[in-house]
Amino acid sequence: MLESNKDSAKLDAMKRIVGMIAKGKNASELFPAVVKNVASKNIEIKKLVYVYLVRYAEEQQDLALLSISTFQRALKDPNQLIRASALRVLSSIRVPIIVPIMMLAIKEASADLSPYVRKNAAHAIQKLYSLDPEQKEMLIEVIEKLLKDKSTLVAGSVVMAFEEVCPDRIDLIHKNYRKLCNLLVDVEEWGQVVIIHMLTRYARTQFVSPWKEDDGLEDNEKNFYESDDEQKEKTDHRKKPYTMDPDHRLLIRNTKPLLQSRNAAVVMAVAQLYWHISPKSEVGIISKSLVRLLRSNREVQYIVLQNIATMSIQRKGMFEPYLKSFYVRSTDPTMIKTLKLEILTNLANEANISTLLREFQTYVKSQDKQFAAATIQTIGRCATNISEVTDTCLNGLVCLLSNRDEIVVAESVVVIKKLLQMQPVQHGEIIKHMAKLLDSITVPVARASILWLIGENCERVPKIAPDVLRKMAKSFTSEDDLVKLQILNLGAKLYLTNSKQTKLLTQYILNLGKYDQNYDIRDRTRFIRQLIVPNEKSGALSKYAKKIFLAQKPAPLLESPFKDRDHFQLGTLSHTLNTKATGYLELSNWPEVAPDPSVRNVEVIELAKEWTPAGKAKKENSAKKFYSESEEEDSSDSSSDSESESESANGEQEEEGDSSEDSSEDISSEHRSDSESASEVGDKRTAKKNSKSKGKSYSEDGEKENEKSKTSDSSSTDSSSEEESSSDSESVSESESEPESRKVAKENEKKKTKQDRNPLTKDVSLLDLDDFNPVSTPVALPTPALSPSLIADLEGLNLSTCSSVISVTEEKLIIKSCSDNWVRTPVFVPVKTHVLLHRMSGRGLAAHYFFPRQPCIFGDKMVSVQITLNNTTDQKIENIHIGEKKLPVGMQMHVFNPIESLEPEGSITVSMGIDFCDSTQTASFQLCTKDDCFSVNIQPPVGELLLPVAMSEKDFKKEQGMLTGMNETSTVIMAAPQNFTPSVILQKVVNVANVGVVPSGQDNIHRFAAKTVHSGSLMLVTVELKEGSTAQLIINTERTVIGSVLLRELKPVLSQG
Amino acid sequence: MLTAPLSRPSGLSCRQGRKGEVHLQPGLLGSQAQEIQTRWRPSPCFGAGKRSPTKMIHSLFLINCSGDIFLEKHWKSVVSQSVCDYFFEAQEKAADVENVPPVISTPHHYLISIHRDRLFFVSVIQTEVPPLFVIEFLHRVADTFQDYFGECSEAAIKDNVVIVYELLEEMLDNGFPLATESNILKELIKPPTILRSVVNSITGSSNVGDTLPTGQLSNIPWRRAGVKYTNNEAYFDVVEEIDAIIDKSGSTVFAEIQGVIDACIKLSGMPDLSLSFMNPRLLDDVSFHPCIRFKRWESERVLSFIPPDGNFRLISYRVSSQNLVAIPVYVKHSISFKENSSCGRFDITIGPKQNMGKTIEGITVTVHMPKVVLNMNLTPTQGSYTFDPVTKVLTWDVGKITPQKLPSLKGLVNLQSGAPKPEENPSLNIQFKIQQLAISGLKVNRLDMYGEKYKPFKGVKYVTKAGKFQVRT
Q1: pTM summary value
Q2: InterPro entries given for it (chain B) (predicted)?
Q3: CB of A193 within 8 Å of any CB in chain B?
Q4: Who wins on pLDDT, A793 or B380?
């Protein structure tokens, strides 16, 4: 038929052949006959021949070559679609000989006028690459060319090719990044998925972390400022404190509409992008869309629920409003049910647990027994997580013991066992009840659990235990191995505690065990006999038999099976399988800044190099240009942003610091006024205007920070709360205000006008620094490190008075250019305030001070002190200033600018610097208003005379070695064991003293390092945990006086419960 | 004439070797560790032709409910059918088709499958790829079949195997989705109609479009060019579904409204439509067809779009969960199983609750009875019921509710003697429909058309249905 002249006959034949292919039958013998028809005029025949060719060309390579010329001709066809399809088929023929032809075709097609042909060229790249990886270099060139393409049609395909061929050549993306972001919405949906995934990876390598460190993630990088190319070009790759890069923002903003896509894959891709790269406060918006996907079919639900489960472990708040959407329906498949249950467990908290428990009650009765069993486990987990309901849960579980279904009962027993183990208080009743159950339960695991429980608590149920043993002895031979082992254990324990009654019984059981079929049981029997039955040969061990058997056992930890999944990128195959899939590309951590700064330098230079030839000449513009750009970008942003904010602001704790960052104009204008007044370039009028609200927001933020630092996982050592505290460190906030400026267009405008007035020659960023110097910015942002070049700039320009501590140390660091210790931001800032002036004695003027623990901007030997002034009268207080100072010798003080007036009920925070000369002597001075003078004094706690220092364990030991003998003071502390968990110790120490955590390799040794503010001498604190709830506290320092004072202060804090 | 050569070609010996290996595998599958080990072992066969693994969808197998692979399509090199053995194994383990895990990992491949209309679409993946990407695509394939053949069944696919092949060829290129919009596909490959197949057989013309699709090249890839109708019409169906869980006592545990707007647009040329609502604020969460201009929605809450031709889903939305959802029906139920006796009582009555003055129709009650139920002996006051003793599903087709006489279903349940009575009463799944009502109160305000001169005929229809509506008893 194929030889026939008639098209219809040929067509019929081809259809049959395709039918065969579809069924998986072999049709390769027909190859020669089919190939002849490749030049057929009939489109359908042609298409079917293509199908055939692609399928069999690999097997019949020589014959396949016959068809090539046809395609070559078609590649020159005037019709773009014919060109495209020819390229498609040509590249699908997997014959190595034609690789050069394909390469040529791809190159030509990539320059084609039609975007459709170019799209196909991008597809062909992947095919050629998989056929012949040798061509990689050439293909990368083509990819580079195609990446520049502006057509939405091409974008998705070429990114796909990029991911396939050279996912590590991130440098190719730089120039196209913005274009991709902007095109994204118009790209077809499949391309969107690929691009979003690629951009997620890109963002993770190119931007600094916008996250708080409160989530326990171990990214303790001091993020540096990157890839804001215009900045980079101009300011010689300075590193800057964290600001949301406008490009980073661009990506986040442009992907947001895609959450509304009908394509689940796109929504998921955006969700994972938000999860992985957006500030924590903005992640909330994805939950709504993800919940929407739950309406979709089973498979989509499955994947989405898995991802939600992972997310909900880390951030409960995100999905809490949708709690009910995870309620289980009896018609859900079991896998969906268990996933929903998992999520419900993760979301359970004090507020909703009662509703949840009621819901769980329904589930327990489910006909799906596997699900019912899972529910029981869930109840157990809730009970351990939420202490309020432990008893309720326990009671509920005990009720379930009388359930008729064995699986349910068995599962309950196992869970109860775990629960009781965790709090073995007075649960004798339950144990008795369970002992009774032994008669009826047959599931081995449950029986074993009961026996174990009785054994463990045999002293609490002295009457029942021997009886149980008697019963079990009777049935020993017919028990399951698991149960037998527990019978042996029970016997041994009873023998030790109540040998009078049970000696014979135990010996009987041991004899039975000796001849058991299972060698495990025989082994155990022998072991126990040797251990407990006294005989002349028994060694030293038997003396400790009781200790061995009845030792305190640590309670099992019931945790989510999804706990460890978060290291996979969400939405990936690897995440679903929870194993690394082939070709999985690890999502890199945020650019990490190792303690060694030289590495960073190289990295920056490297990046800069990549950028320099990028021809970003237009970026090298004046400051004005830069401003206008960022304004454009952000004016459009601010509206949508604030919207999302209001949604997510529903009291979700996690958002705190950040929400203040993005939320509203007035906050940032506060910062501004704040900073101005502080850095003495201030515009007093604004300060006045905002003073009231500022005070409020400030104190609020203080509270929040406090909250957060409490909740923060302090086990994540030095990084734990670095960020929130960074909010207070000036060195950081110097230029941190930039994101605000970006966000708020109006603000920018103001600034611009201001800047125009300024006849300064400084460049932009420095202007920023100048304008915005928020001393008390409540915005918590990650700590970046300053690059040497910045310091050079800083110094050269003599920026206000602040030759800040950081820059000095940084400089030192560069000189030494080794991994020396250097100052960093405090781990924790206590919000404890001290009264400076009571309102009664101050005639309505109240003053409080606290130590923000940041390097002082007024002088590097000063401790910064923040004073909050409150006007409690109903009249303005005018001209608040500092009068006469009575300072001990050597002590210096930098006063705050006089405050013109303070409104009634108003409050204002000012900062000042005091050089205490490393002593705890009191600084006395007079706080004056227009009418009165009040004598006040500030006495610093010794812990505030320190600045934290980052150093490695090795350096710490080295330094410690040099500070022994005279310079070492130590003491022994006694305290309850629960006070010696790492987090408690960390919290206590940093609460007292402004020290930095040194990452420790040992669990029982905690090290902290700091230096004194005035002299810069090291202060090394070591807490070494010893046996039996004691610990040794060692302080090594040159300043022995301060050392001993600190020791005295730390000791009671650490030992108190 | 054609004869199908059945022997395998020599070139595939390598594959056969693999097949042997596969048969050895299942024993190992049990242990996770072993499996991982094997996964990392380089495959001697697959490493042969190419070194780097390729992304996205490698092959597709269609499997019917009895476990036959009736269609396979490979976009890259050929993967042996034996890879499906892993799938069958998982299927066996799952017992229930609903419980087959969508993602299965095998030593060399990953299988991602969907279950649609009693068919399994199993795709073979070699490397990391977002699973939703594949799942979503497979559903899109199934949708396309549905669209082309009216049903997505084994018979329909087998009958149209050539079209299926052509479709798959167009939809994926090298495993990456190429054209998935039905408008474009229909231009490329014409759907089969009886008339056309008659004409084709006479004239020898084909069902492959001879005009080349232009939509794919334009900025609006979803709409084909040169549409012409004599009657220009635009219809919108606002369909809302109530998802609810009602507990034993009749109080609502959970309820929300999910809605969609389906459009059927037959307008000539390039119409630019904008649809506005009386109360757009009701829409809490919306997902859009790609044709909708997101910016307009954000700023004005107006749906502005150039529609695809034909039927499509314009938006789907969720009504904010804060709003109380009116539950239109109530169910009185009393189901009890007596201890130690082989029968139980079953009595349910359905009544209208808040129906906004509309009649509730199309009521169906489905109950999955416990396994111990042998048979049911019931009398409905209205409609008819069936009980399938194999699947234990009771279906009661009620029809309309007339408030004067509430429909009820009463009778006895025969239980397996000797078995303990079921602990939990089965929950009732209820279906119903209310015409001319959008339960959320959503109302379309107006539809305007720009860009074309003619006056279209416009229409909006509202329907409320039960979604996942479950009453616990």
Answers
A1: 0.63
A2: Adaptor_comp_med_subunit, AP2_Mu_C_sf, AP_mu_sigma_su, Clathrin_mu, Clathrin_mu_CS, Longin-like_dom_sf, MHD
A3: yes
A4: B380
